[in-house]
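Input C-alpha cells:
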C-alpha cells in the first residue's frame, strides 16, 4: 500500500476531513490531498506530526509494519532483563568492576553504595 493510501486510510479512521487534518498539521487542505494522492510526500517534521496525530509509529506509517507490538509489554519485558549480565557478556571488564568494594551493579544502573559515598564525602 502506498504512503498516500495509508494516510487516507488513517485520516478516515480518525474521523477527520482533509480540512481538519490540514488545520492540525498547519498545512493547506491541498497539501493533505497531494500527500493522499501520492503527488508529494510529507517532510520529516510533518511525518512526525502525522504519527502523533494518528497514534502510529514512524515505521507503521512508512512501511506498515508493527514493530514489537504493544509498547507497554516491551517496557515490562525490558524491566525483567538482567542488564548486568547482558552488558558483562559484551564488556567483560564490567564483571570485574562489579566485585570491587563499594560498587554495585543493579538492573541497568551503576550505583555507588551508600557507604562508599559517605566515606568519600567525609
Amino acid at each position: 500500500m502506498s504512503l498516500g493510501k495509508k494516510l487516507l486510510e488513517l485520516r478516515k479512521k480518525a474521523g477527520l476531513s482533509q480540512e481538519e487534518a490540514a488545520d492540525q498539521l498547519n498545512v493547506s487542505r491541498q497539501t493533505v490531498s497531494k500527500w493522499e494522492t501520492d503527488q508529494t510526500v510529507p517532510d520529516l517534521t510533518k511525518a512526525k506530526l502525522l504519527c502523533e496525530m494518528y497514534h502510529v509509529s514512524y515505521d507503521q506509517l512508512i512501511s506498515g509494519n508493527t514493530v514489537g507490538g504493544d509498547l507497554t509489554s516491551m517496557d515490562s519485558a525490558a524491566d525483567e532483563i538482567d542488564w548486568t549480565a547482558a552488558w558483562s557478556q559484551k564488556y567483560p571488564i564490567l564483571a570485574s568492576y562489579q566485585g570491587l568494594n563499594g560498587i554495585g551493579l543493579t538492573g541497568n544502573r551503576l550505583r555507588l553504595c551508600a557507604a562508599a559515598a559517605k566515606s568519600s564525602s567525609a
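The first strand starts at residue 103 and ends at 106. Residues 81-121 form one domain.
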